[in-house]
Structure formats: C-alpha cells, structure tokens
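User: Let's play a game. I give you a shape written as tokens, and you guess the letters that built it. Ready? Here's round one.
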C-alpha cells in the first residue's frame, strides 16, 4: 500500500478493504495512509446473490468504522449508521432492476440513493457492457443518480 512497485498511497486518495483480518488491517493502512490524508472504505456488503458479508460481519464493519477516523465510509447496499457522517458507495446499479448469469443483482439509482440512503452509485457493466456508447451511458447514469439524490432531499 505504501511501498512496493505501485506505491498506492502516492496516487490513491481512497482505498478499500475487507475486515476479515480484524481491526489490525485498518490500523496498518491508517499508519501509512492517514499522514498523507488518505481514507478507507470498508467492504461491508457485496451486491451478488448469496454473498456472505451479512449480519454480524456487516455489524462489525459498522462498529469498526464508527470507532476509527481513518474510515470514511462503506461499500454496501444501504446507509448503515447515522452515528458518524460516513459515505456509502453502492455497487450493482442498473437503470432497470434485474440480475445476470453471474449472480449480480442490479438495483436502480432511485432504489439505492432515495430509498436506501446511499451517497454514490458504482456502475460497471451498465456503462462498459458490450456494444455500449460509454459516454452516453455514463451520462444516463449520472442523470439518474442526480435525480435520485434530488428526490432524497425532498
């Protein structure tokens, strides 16, 4: 993270991690990243069918995040806590709720931002899928995400 070939802290302002190794993973990343003003997202949930990151695992993510200022938020399906102002970034975004053969479960920006309180949508195949006009699709998702955010503010 701080050394090696990629020297990630030199160019990545935000990184993410699973907390499966325990709280030491946060402390270790913070020792290198905090002095450089970096932040950490915890992978509290995934968007695939049958994911194992649920229940007690997700609760432990929230507990660790609230207790550690280096953590700036989560990757997950919904806002997890109001205890601290933490960002929630949500993957599995599609303009039409559906799924795919790989177990990915897509939800609309409206569901994610307005109903579940997420702050940022993470879009992959909806923009980069085969035959897609990347710029046009990115604009569609940006517009849908912004409209959902404005709806949440009402």
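Assistant: Ready! My guess for every position:
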């Amino acid at each position: 993270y701080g050394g090696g070939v990629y020297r990630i802290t030199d160019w990545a302002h935000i990184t993410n991690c699973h907390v499966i190794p325990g709280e030491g993973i946060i402390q270790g990343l913070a020792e290198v990243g905090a002095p450089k003003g970096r932040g950490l997202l915890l992978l509290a949930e995934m968007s695939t069918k049958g994911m194992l990151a649920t229940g007690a695992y997700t609760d432990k993510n929230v507990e660790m995040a609230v207790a550690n200022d280096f953590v700036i938020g989560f990757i997950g399906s919904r806002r997890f806590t109001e205890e601290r102002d933490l960002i929630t970034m949500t993957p599995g975004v599609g303009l039409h709720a559906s799924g795919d053969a790989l177990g990915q479960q897509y939800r609309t920006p409206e569901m994610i931002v307005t109903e579940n309180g997420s702050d940022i949508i993470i879009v992959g195949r909806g923009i980069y899928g085969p035959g897609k006009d990347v710029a046009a699709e990115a604009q569609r998702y940006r517009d849908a995400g912004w409209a959902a955010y404005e709806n949440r503010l009402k």
